[in-house]
Write a structure and sequence with these properties.
Number of helices: 10
Radius of gyration: 18 Å
Number of strands: 0
Number of domains: 1
Helix content: over 70%
Strand content: under 5%
């Protein structure tokens, strides 16, 4: 029975990570520019953030959920501005200059990890995503053992990490086919996609919260 919760958690973790939003684009961009480890550690930061929101959803931490709901507008604005700034940085990044800098100093995997963790944790809608997943899979029950819930959360982290490892490994195989000119245009595309995704997501959220609800 305990194995079932781990498997369910892995499925939920992969399902929640697969949609390639701004973080997915960032992981792809870092893998192409800096290598598989950079992309994977960036994904791990997102996986840890998702796991924290899965804990909140799985253990129904009502105080935190309530705080998120009351401060949702400001959290969304700050998160959107940070991601737009990231998109602009990638857009204007020169891959030739970046490669020269990497030769002079080794890149920090911890910085890659921490940056995506902060960016992902700034999206509190993830807690409601996991609430929906847990309800849909019917994996959280009122009389559920505490150990089983921990196994479920562990499964979420393993599933999310597996997805980011698979994605960074797949993209890394394409690096040998990409020259500086292609990297230059990939940075332009990646930066533009991040900005567009963030703006669209923010406008959709605002329209649902403030326009459709209060016509």
């Amino acid at each position: 029975m305990s194995l079932k919760y781990i498997i369910d958690g892995i499925i939920i973790g992969i399902s929640a990570s697969i949609p390639l939003g701004p973080i997915g684009v960032l992981v792809i961009q870092r893998t192409l520019n800096k290598g598989r480890l950079s992309g994977f550690f960036s994904g791990l930061g997102a996986a840890l953030s998702d796991t924290i929101y899965a804990i909140i959803a799985g253990f129904s931490l009502s105080f935190i959920v309530g705080f998120i709901e009351t401060q949702m507008l400001w959290i969304q604005i700050i998160g959107a501005l940070v991601l737009i700034g990231l998109g602009l940085k990638i857009f204007f990044n020169n891959p030739a200059v970046q490669l020269r800098r990497q030769k002079k100093r080794s890149s920090s995997l911890f910085q890659d990890f921490a940056s995506t963790f902060i960016l992902t944790i700034a999206n509190p809608l993830a807690v409601f995503l996991f609430l929906a997943f847990f309800a849909g899979f019917r994996v959280v029950e009122a009389k559920q053992e505490l150990f089983d819930r921990f196994l479920l959360i562990l499964g979420v982290f393993v599933g999310a990490s597996t997805w980011w490892f698979s994605l960074s490994s797949l993209i890394n195989t394409l690096r040998s086919r990409i020259n500086l000119r292609r990297l230059f245009w990939l940075n332009k595309i990646a930066g533009s996609v991040i900005i567009i995704l963030v703006c669209v997501a923010f406008m959709v959220w605002v329209s649902k919260e403030y326009i459709w609800v209060n016509p």
